[in-house]
């Protein structure tokens, strides 16, 4: 395939923002779930 000028590369800032957009809520959800699960064992 020939190079196509329609495609552009993702910048490191865009990549970091995308990971943060997904990773922060995911991490928060996992922590909250673990804290609630620990209540079962007290």
Task: Characterize the structure shown.
The chain is mainly α and 42 residues long. 69% of the residues lie in helices and 0% in strands. The protein contains 1 helix and no strands.
Low-confidence sequence ranges: none
Shape: rod-shaped
SSE order: H
Class from helix and strand fractions: mainly alpha
Q: Proportion of β residues?
A: under 5%
SSE topology sketch:
Layout: H1 12-40
Structure characteristics:
rod-shaped; mainly alpha; 69% helix; 42 residues
Summarize the structure.
The protein is an all-alpha fold. The protein has one helix and no strands.
